Every structure is written in C-alpha cells, then in structure tokens.
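thought: user wants a sequence for this fold. calling inverse folding tool.
action: design(structure=
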C-alpha cells in the first residue's frame, strides 16, 4: 500500500520485490542531478541500480528508492536530507558527491541516527574529527587518493611542483594530502592557487603563473565540468610538453575523458579505480554496466555499485532499521571491482589500493594504462573517536 502511494506520487521506485510481505528498506539517494557534478550523480545512480539488479535478490527484502537533487549546494542538500529523514522517514541514505555537501549534512545525519553510505565525497573530516557510527564511506577519502602521489612523483625525479584546485574542502584536502607527502620526501611546492569553485571559466591567469614559477610539473584536482575545461585549456596554452600535468585521477575520469579528447593524452593521475583493472569482479561489473548504459563505468559508477552492494550485504546480515543498518554497514567486506574492500572500524573509511594511471590513446578511444599499484593503507584516525550506534 505504502509503495503504491509513493509510486503514485512519483516519489519512489521499487527495485526488487521481497518474497515475504515485509516492508521494503527505504533508501534516500542524495545526489547532484544538476550543477557542475550532475554527470557524477547520474553515474553513481546508474552503478547503484546495476548492483541492485545484480545482487538485490540476495538481500531477503526489497528496496524503495527516493531520490533528491543536492544541486551541489550545501544549504539545498541540507534541506533535502531533512526531507528524506523527517518526511520520507528513510531507513538509510546513500550518495553525496561534494565534500562541502557532506560537511553540511553531517550533523543532521549523526543527530538523527540515519546511516549514510557515502558514495563519493572524500571530505577527510567525515571519517576524521567529525566521524560518526552512522557514516560509512564506500568511495575514498581526499587524503587517501592523493597522499601516495607525493612519494611516487618524487621517485620519478620531480622536485618542484605548482598546485591548483577549486577553493572548497575537497580542493584544499586533496592538495594538502599530496603536498604533505611530496614535501616530506624532499620536494618543494613552488606555488599554489585555489580557484573559485563553480565560478572559474578562464584558467589562463593561473596557468601563466604556473608557467613562470620554475616548477617541473603541475599537480591538480578538478572534477566534472571544471576538469574538462581545465584539461583543454592546459593543452591549448601549450603547457603539456614542458610542464607535465599530474593530479588526482578524477581529472581524467573515463566519465568525461572523451569530452577532453587528445588534450588528456599523457596526463598522469592516481585513483582507486579504473575500468581497465584486471579481475573477475571488475569484468562482471564492466559487462553489466555497459549492457545497461552503453558506456564504460567510471570511479563514480563503482562507488554507487559498491554502495548498493554494501547495502545488500547489510540486509543479508538481517539489518532492517536505522541502527542495525548502521552497525552492519561498517562491517561489510567483499571482493569488488576494485579488489578486496574493507571498512576500517576506527574511522568507517574504506581501505583500498590506489592506482597510478596514464591516459593514453587506445583502439576504441582514450583509455587508462595502469603504471603502478600503490598498496592499500588505512587512513590515520585524524582525530576520529568512534562512538557506538546509540538507538
Ligand atoms: C568532493 O567534493 O569530495 C569530490 C567531488 C568530485 C570528485 C571527487 C571529490 O570527483
């Protein structure tokens, strides 16, 4: 009955039907479906649906989905989270792409005791000083994907680096993670700029400064629409040959690398997933995702896929309500497309390897050539004092 009403209102989609007449688990998908990260939100949702189709029948219950658009705006996202929690009374939420949005909804999620499976946002504080037994991250932390590149680039002989990133939590934390290990290895950051987030169209003035800085290389974080503009402008400025471009791998995500085109060739970045990883779980994922969408999955798709897989695992373990789902989610571990995944119980952040990859021309367009696999390391606790689930 409840499902019928929700469906009539266009608010919920049922993705699996339980065998018994038990109520489905109600899931709030909190993602950007508009704004600079809209394509990322759509890919996460597609990965989420593929996993529910593939594994949902093992859950022992069904899932009703209510989706809300954060618009990549923290105040909007907070209002949508409130609606999902108080009005829709969801049992669990999944999603959040921007670190700024995660920072904004953290207290609401923690205070209401609603489990949130983070399916992108890397905000270090969410699994550090602001950690919560209700927040489990199935994606990455900003420090985790950038720290390994400091030593790796130093080992390649690079000594002086100029950094660039958007001016919000993710940009600052990603660059901080890289700069910390690069300078500890003996390298020097010769200049840094943080560009206005969602407002910078012309990167020219920043590129001119990078060029004049005497750097051996540039290291950046940009994602979504900003990544496409940045990579194209970097190339058309003629910088690529003399000042090689490095960064966190979102810069050249398979989701939009074709929009970047030849400008992305030769860019070297690091990430926790590329679709070219050679393992059985990834082969099954790539095939299922391609069959559904007609394109290769990105890191965003795998976050959605693994978030839904984690939810199924929690349901399989018998979890149904907010507290039991929160408890079960932090204990999941499985072999996924990224390899063996587990959750660090000290922080609730995922533990996974990081891959250095170069974007190269392949037979069917641009592809990701893995240059190195850097071992999985749990993040430092970063001030996290994990409380128990309390309701
Ligand atoms: C973030 O804001 O945490 C974020 C956004 C987009 C990415 C990665 C991280 O591709």
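)
observation: tool returned 391 residues.
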């Amino acid at each position: 009955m409840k499902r019928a009403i929700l469906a009539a209102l266009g608010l919920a989609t049922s993705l699996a039907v339980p065998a018994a007449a038990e109520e489905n688990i109600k899931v709030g998908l909190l993602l950007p479906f508009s704004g600079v990260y809209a394509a990322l939100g759509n890919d996460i949702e597609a990965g989420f649906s593929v996993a529910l189709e593939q594994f949902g029948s093992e859950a022992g219950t069904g899932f009703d989905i209510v989706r809300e658009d954060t618009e990549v705006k923290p105040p909007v996202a907070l209002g949508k989270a409130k609606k999902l929690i108080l009005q829709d009374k969801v049992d669990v939420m999944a999603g959040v792409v921007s670190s700024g949005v995660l920072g904004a909804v953290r207290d609401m999620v923690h205070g209401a005791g609603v489990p949130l499976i983070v399916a992108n946002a890397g905000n270090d504080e969410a699994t550090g000083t602001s950690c919560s037994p209700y927040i489990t991250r199935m994606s990455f932390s900003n420090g985790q994907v950038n720290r390994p590149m400091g030593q790796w680039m130093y080992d390649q002989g690079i000594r002086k680096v100029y950094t660039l990133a958007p001016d919000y939590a993710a940009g600052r934390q990603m660059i901080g993670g890289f700069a910390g290990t690069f300078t500890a290895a003996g390298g020097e950051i010769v200049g840094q700029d943080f560009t206005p987030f969602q407002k910078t169209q012309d990167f020219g003035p920043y590129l001119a400064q990078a060029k004049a800085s005497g750097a051996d290389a540039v290291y950046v974080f940009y994602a979504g629409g900003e990544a496409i503009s940045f990579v194209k402008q970097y190339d058309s400025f003629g910088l690529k040959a003399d000042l090689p471009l490095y960064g966190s791998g979102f810069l050249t995500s398979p989701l939009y690398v074709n929009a970047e085109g030849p400008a992305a060739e030769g860019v070297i970045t690091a990430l926790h997933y590329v679709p070219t990883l050679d393992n059985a779980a990834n082969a099954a994922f790539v095939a299922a995702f391609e069959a559904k969408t007609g394109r290769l999955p990105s890191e965003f798709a795998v976050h959605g896929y693994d978030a839904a897989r984690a939810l199924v695992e929690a349901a399989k373990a018998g979890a149904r309500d907010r507290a039991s789902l929160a408890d079960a989610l932090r204990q999941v571990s499985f072999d996924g497309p990224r390899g063996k995944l587990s959750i660090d119980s000290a922080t609730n952040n995922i533990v996974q390897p990081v891959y250095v990859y170069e974007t190269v021309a392949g037979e069917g367009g641009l592809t990701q050539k893995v240059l190195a696999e850097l071992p999985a390391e749990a993040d430092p606790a970063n001030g996290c004092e994990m409380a128990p689930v309390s309701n």
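thought: summarizing for user.
answer: Here is the designed sequence. Residues 37, 97-99, 120-123, 170, 223, 250 surround P-hydroxybenzoic acid (CB under 6 Å).
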